[in-house]
Amino acid sequence: MLNRLLDLRDEESVFLAEESLQDLVHLNVTSEILEEGLDAQDCIEIKGMGAALHLAEPREFWLLLTDRYSDNKILQGSLENWRRKKCKTIEVNENDFFLAVAEYFSQSMSSELFCDSCSIQGAPLYVDERIDRLEAFLREKIPSNKSILEIGCGSGMATQALLRLGHRPLSMDSDRCELCQAIKSDFMAPERCFVLDARLLPRFFPSKSFDIVMGFMVGLIDMSNWPYWRDILLKASNLAMEQILFTVYTQKEAEIIAKALGEAGWKGEVIDHCDSRGIYDQWAYLANREN
Q: 216 near 152, Cβ under 8 Å?
């Protein structure tokens, strides 16, 4: 996707300076690179996003630098210098840029570019009964043709229910290994998932970026970790235009979530979705945004 956005041939190599989305907030490597200086043969300025520099050493490749997601706007001075050289300017859709960057990091992760070794082998464990129950539950609750952000996707077990229903969620989790396992097993598409601390989501998406935000089996929530989960759920829910849905293990968790999000302007209900096994998605909170 990055090659297409930059109008480069498929065989041309493109690398980001940083190693993760979270690193794009802090820009430690980018700062070091700019301090040392770069001898670039060509430059592609991505308006409002950053720049790709064509380098010859240690081998020929394009280096992509972006400060779009950081408070530290460190590229401006360098961009002015690069513009004096041969520098093409392009405009790209911000959503397309994010998806291309997310795909790059997902592919880099699944190819173990930034890992010394991989301790997890084989496909993730999926419980078909859970996926079947969720598929039936979501069929009546989630409209079709909606943009969906799924937080806390883990290895993508619950994501499979959305995919079966024809949805194309953008899914995220903070656990690199679980998501990597799912990508390697072809259960998750690298362009539709990413690794990030959910509390950083507002750095990458403005308010109401998605029609629906959801998360399955968030928690376990108790009074000791509730401030952490409250922060996640409020920030994630702020990205929803129309609807939110979160499933949990206990009624108490669902009611805690309902109270906090109700105070934040959501009008919803706690839903009993218990089954005889009593393991996954036993309770849910489903809400619509109050205008």
A: yes
Which letter does DSSP use for residue 288 in this model?
A: E
The full set of domain ranges for the chain reads 2-92, 128-289
Angstrom distance (rounded) from CA 149 to CA 210: 6
Domain 128-289 sits in CATH at: 3.40.50.150
DSSP codes of every residue in the chain = -HHHHTT--TTS-EEESSSSTTHHHH-HHHHHHHHH----SEEEEETTTEEEEEE-SSSSEEEEEE-TT-S---SHHHHHHHHTSSEEEE---HHHHHHHHHHHHHHHHHTTTT-S-----SPPP--HHHHHHHHHHHHHHS-SS--EEEE--TTSTTHHHHHHTT---EEEES-HHHHHHHHHTTSS-GGGEEE--GGGHHHHS-TT-EEEEEESS-----TTTHHHHHHHHHHHHTTEEEEEEEEESSHHHHHHHHHHHHHTTEEEEEEE---SS--S--EEEEEEE--
Whether pTM exceeds 0.85:
yes
pLDDT in single tens digits along all 291 residues of the chain? 999 999 999 999 999 999 999 999 999 999 999 999 888 888 999 999 999 999 988 789 999 999 999 999 999 888 888 887 778 999 999 999 999 999 999 999 999 887 877 777 788 999 999 999 999 999 999 999 999 999 999 999 999 999 999 999 999 999 999 999 999 999 999 999 999 999 999 999 999 999 999 999 999 999 999 999 999 999 999 999 999 999 999 999 999 999 999 999 999 999 999 998 889 999 999 999 987
